[in-house]
Hints:
Blueprint: E1 2-3, H1 8-19, E2 25-28, H2 31-39, E3 50-53, H3 59-70, E4 77-80, H4 95-123, E5 126-131, H5 144-164, E6 169-176, H6 182-195, H7 199-208, H8 218-229, E7 240-243
Parallel strand pairs: 1-2, 2-3, 4-5, 5-6, 6-7
Amino acid sequence: MVCGSSQGIGLAAARELAELGCRVVLMARNAEKLEVAKASLSTKLGQSHLSQTADFTQPDAVDQAVRAILALTEVHILVNNTGGPAAGSALGAEVESFRSAFEQHLVCNHLLVKAVVPGMQKAGFGRIINVISTSVKQPLPNLGVSNTIRGAVANWSKTLANELAPHGITVNNVLPGATATSRLEEIVTNKAQKTGKTPEHHLAEMAAQVPAGRVGQPEEIGAAIAFLASPAAAYINGINLPVDGGRTSSL
Length: 251
């Protein structure tokens, strides 16, 4: 089950997992985009894929959605991936912004985990991969709410990794850096409107901060997710994996 999989990193991860032979359940809020995304997944090994709409601003709806899926199939790999909170300072954020982001990210993630873990325990195999942000290692400027909530998800994940490891279930976080997605387009467009400079200018500035000299592609993040989901990653548990071209300053 891959959340936020109608586009961007979620879709890239779903495609990679399907290519490796997984039956993928796509989950996002736009039914039309989900169907287009599902049609793009590989079925070369004879697998069929599913899709399920869910609005992550409504935890109860997410809980109902995952239970509808579990009535059809077990889930042995869960990729938690949800678009980040709006930009802005921590001090300037309204209290409700923290509450809603906490529900959208941590609470919804937790509901999904509680629903799928019994099946993973029964199978003796499970992979939970949370797509978060490099901000859990190095807070990013003007992302006060996101920095706060992403940190909470990272610590929740580490705690779960310790609790679930005896059952053959690993829990890891993938931390994308600047990646060519619609969210990045939104960020550089907003900067352009405020500064009068072009989106291309701001994109080049971002790329210049990366030792690799460029922003990442969704497929590169998807490949990291797929590796952590594989049997080859069985002894990797409770880590934060930056996929950022070396931008993060800390180890």
